Amino acid sequence: MPVEVGQIVEGKITGITKFGAFVELPGGVTGLVHISEVADSFVKDVNDFLKENDMVKVKVIGISEDGKISLSIRKLKESSRDRRAKEKDNLSFEDKLAKFMKDSEERLLDIRRSHEAKRGSYGRKRALY
Predict the structure, then answer these.
(1) How far is CA 8 from CA 26, 93, 100, in A?
(2) How far is the C-alpha of 9 from the C-alpha of 24, rounded, in Å?
(3) Higher pLDDT, 3 or 19
(4) How many alpha carbons fall within 13 Å on the CB side of residue 22?
(5) Where would I find the S1 motif domain in this sequence (predicted)?
(6) Are residues 41 and 19 part of one domain?
(7) Is the pTM of this model over 0.70?
(8) pLDDT, tens digit, for every residue of 66-103?
(9) Residue 25 in 3-state DSSP?
(10) Is the Cα torsion angle 52, 55, 56, 57 positive or negative in sign?
């Protein structure tokens, strides 16, 4: 069964690196949960959150042209939280403000990443030799 973007699947963690965790999905394909997609909080070490051979539910957030599959545990939790929020539909002002601030920060971070990717190496400070 081929995976598609937006799909939620369960897989087995087959390897952990300093930049994320590899997850074997149904059909024998492997995807990567980047360290930034492991949890809502800051993740210094992936091993603090995940262990090899753990079964995890992940959301497919991207498939590159060369077949690399990007996965997220964080976005899966966000979508379940969003569903619960819609069910309640009577959030307090503080809850609404907190959600707005989090969404704004994520959008700004995405814009910064995009801008830095376009700048290439010219925008970075260079070491003086």
Answers:
(1) 11, 31, 25
(2) 10
(3) 19
(4) 9
(5) 6-74
(6) yes
(7) no
(8) 989 999 999 887 666 666 666 566 678 888 888 888 88
(9) coil
(10) positive
